[in-house]
From TrEMBL:
This is dCMP deaminase. GO terms for molecular function: dCMP deaminase activity; zinc ion binding. PROSITE patterns: CYT_DCMP_DEAMINASES_1, CYT_DCMP_DEAMINASES_2. Residues 12-161 form the CMP/dCMP-type deaminase domain. Zn(2+) binds at H93, C119, C122. GO terms for biological process: pyrimidine nucleotide metabolic process. PANTHER family: DEOXYCYTIDYLATE DEAMINASE (PTHR11086:SF18), DEOXYCYTIDYLATE DEAMINASE-RELATED (PTHR11086). Its cofactor is Zn(2+).
């Protein structure tokens, strides 16, 4: 008779799908940040994507990053504040690739798991994509306030996965 000494703990669905998003991010060749996203309908995985250059085009690891600087003016308590942002324009974001490579009908009422909080552009695209929920792990403070407001206006559940640790195999390292 064989007895099992211990029972393995089963991961919850959020952890399971976020683990997949992090593993997908390992395909990225972006030297600044690896981002992965997955589309889920119920408990069914419908698509995956990561950030990178368009197919067939040299990526940042081959041709270097194409960094542009943007400045955003905010008025807080009648005081003007300027925020400087640097963005790579060679890279298509993981969320954008996910929308390009999945069907609208599959996105209706679905959930997107993404390793990083969406930027303003991705948030706008997701807001029009039919998804009902966005779950992310790492915050993106540069656009956070605007994105949270947008998601509330659209009625999209928007939540950070607290207490989550990416799988070791994802080799997570972030350069700001």
């Amino acid at each position: 008779m064989v007895t099992i000494a211990h029972e393995q703990v089963r991961k919850d669905w959020d952890t399971y799908f976020m683990d997949i998003a992090y593993m997908v991010s390992t395909r990225s060749r972006c030297p600044r940040r690896h981002v992965g996203s997955v589309l889920v309908q119920g408990k069914k995985l419908l698509g995956t994507a990561y950030n990178g250059a368009p197919m067939g085009v040299s990526d940042c690891s081959e041709a270097g990053c194409m960094i542009v600087e943007e400045f955003e003016l905010k008025i807080v308590d009648d005081v003007e504040q300027v925020t400087k942002k640097q963005r790579c324009i060679r890279t298509i974001h993981a969320e954008q690739n996910l929308l390009l490579f999945t069907d609208r009908i599959d996105r209706e009422g679905s959930t997107v798991y993404v390793t990083d909080q969406p930027c303003w552009t991705c948030a706008n695209m997701l807001a029009n994509s039919g998804v009902r929920e966005i779950v992310f792990h790492r915050s993106y403070p540069k656009d956070s306030e605007k994105v949270i407001t947008l998601m509330a206006q659209k009625g999209i559940t928007f939540r950070q996965l607290d207490g989550y640790s990416p799988p070791e195999q994802a080799g997570v390292s972030v350069i700001s």
